[in-house]
Amino acid sequence: MATGADQAVGMSLVLFSLLLFTYYTVWVIVLPFVDARHVLHRYFLPREYSVILPGVAAVLLLLCIGTFTAVILWKNRKPKKTD
Amino acid sequence: MASRKSLQANRANGDKYSVLLPTYNERENLPLIVWLLVKYFGESGHDYEIIVIDDGSPDGTLEVAEQLQKIYGDDKMLLRPRAKKLGLGTAYIHGMKHATGNFIIIMDADLSHHPKFIPQFIKKQKEGDYDLVSGTRYQGSGGVYGWDLRRKLISRGANFLAQVLLRPGASDLTGSFRLYKKKVLESLVERCVSKGYVFQMEMIVRARQLNYTVGEVPISFVDRVYGESKLGGNEIVSYAKGLLTLFATT
Amino acid sequence: MTKLLQWLLGVSLLGAVWALVAFDLLELSLPRTYREVAWPIPLYLLVSFGCYSLATVGYRVATFNDCNEAASELHEQIKEAKEDLRKKGLKM
């Protein structure tokens, strides 16, 4: 058994990703087959955002990873100066 | 040499287990781990020996080991010290040269690996005649004591990434509590070049490459009772580097 | 074949299939809606994989055993071992 807090965090990650997946699936896969005047369309941004938003998120993620790696490597380089 | 070996081969079920304990500043832990090993091997009745490979610890680990040798006898306790701190891979090679068992058990001497699992390792090995049996913290009743949320997230994430990229056929890649057939360990060690966390990962990946069979036993990992283990940015970056190297080369 | 090459092969196969449908290279004259759906599929797969990863890691964190009994058992045994070793004449 894990502790309560860790369980809560883990399970909310699961829940969050399930919701995200469902929403995104409806947006990208289902919506084009639904009539343009249907009420469902009101709950989603225009279609181009289904590409723009994940794209921005991906770029941000890569930037974070890049910065993290750069900072660590830079810190390592400084005190030694061997290579 | 041959006659000694065959004599040992006749004892009990014929198998002998050599436990390799690489140590560095483990004066506090070494007596305890040895005591536990003696206890559990005594209960299970398997033939065994403990090989301590001390890398010139300044805290007097070696003196403690010598005392233990007097207590438990030099057929059970072998000391194979080295002058200074060298890599883990070479420690295994060094220890194996003196090992008389046909199986090698590798574990940490810091009490994070409990000898009570060794009988389970042995049983598992016999079940499927596995070439290596790996302890796993990530499956079944396995787990870790002493990790906070951050540590759990990072290790689960790192493990997931490795599973996706390498598909190694084992759930715990960075664990170092394992049982090997001696010949298998010999052939693996000479192929492995990485250091630290990545060394254990490379061993499992190479094992898959060479078509060795791997069995798994869930273990509970109790993070260092004395001293501390760390997981910072450096560890993460070197893990990622090692992972990508294995990804591109195996 | 290294894992990297396996991945590259898999990705390029998927990419080829995707291009065939999304740009209608075989001139199957698929309905417009199909092509509209097919076009963002690579990104959709990426997002799905991200969700799957997040969910898996989350679930595994939630079910990670804390092993409190193992720790207390070990502490008991440490006490026992220290006593026994002292009796046997070990100087710590």
From TrEMBL, chain A:
One of its GO terms (cellular component) is dolichol-phosphate-mannose synthase complex. One of its GO terms (molecular function) is enzyme regulator activity. GO terms for biological process: dolichol phosphate mannose biosynthetic process; GPI anchor biosynthetic process; muscle structure development. Keywords: Endoplasmic reticulum, Membrane, Transmembrane, Transmembrane helix. It is a multi-pass membrane protein. Pfam families: DPM2 (PF07297). The chain crosses the membrane at residues 12-31, 51-74. InterPro entries: DPM2. It is found in: Endoplasmic reticulum membrane. Component of the dolichol-phosphate mannose (DPM) synthase complex composed of DPM1, DPM2 and DPM3; in the complex interacts directly with DPM3. Component of the glycosylphosphatidylinositol-N-acetylglucosaminyltransferase (GPI-GnT) complex composed at least by PIGA, PIGC, PIGH, PIGP, PIGQ, PIGY and DPM2. Interacts with PIGA, PIGC and PIGQ. Regulatory subunit of the dolichol-phosphate mannose (DPM) synthase complex; essential for the ER localization. Belongs to the DPM2 family. This is Dolichol phosphate-mannose biosynthesis regulatory protein. It comes from Xiphophorus maculatus.
Automatic annotation (TrEMBL), chain B:
Residues 18-187 form the Glycosyltransferase 2-like domain. GO terms for biological process: dolichol-linked oligosaccharide biosynthetic process; GPI anchor biosynthetic process; muscle structure development; protein O-linked glycosylation via mannose. Keywords: Endoplasmic reticulum, Glycosyltransferase, Magnesium, Manganese, Metal-binding, Transferase. It holds the Pfam family Glycos_transf_2. One of its GO terms (molecular function) is metal ion binding. Transmembrane segments: none annotated. It is an enzyme of class 2 (transferase). InterPro entries: DPM1-like, Glyco_trans_2-like, Nucleotide-diphossugar_trans. This is Dolichol-phosphate mannosyltransferase subunit 1. It comes from Xiphophorus maculatus. The lineage of its organism: Eukaryota, Metazoa, Chordata, Craniata, Vertebrata.
UniProtKB/TrEMBL annotation, chain C:
The keyword DNA-binding does not apply. One of its GO terms (biological process) is muscle structure development. Pathway: Protein modification; protein glycosylation. It comes from Xiphophorus maculatus (Southern platyfish). Keywords: Coiled coil, Endoplasmic reticulum, Membrane, Transmembrane, Transmembrane helix. This is Dolichol-phosphate mannosyltransferase subunit 3. Signal peptide: none annotated. Residues 64-91 form a coiled coil. Component of the dolichol-phosphate mannose (DPM) synthase complex. The chain crosses the membrane at residues 43-62. It is a multi-pass membrane protein.
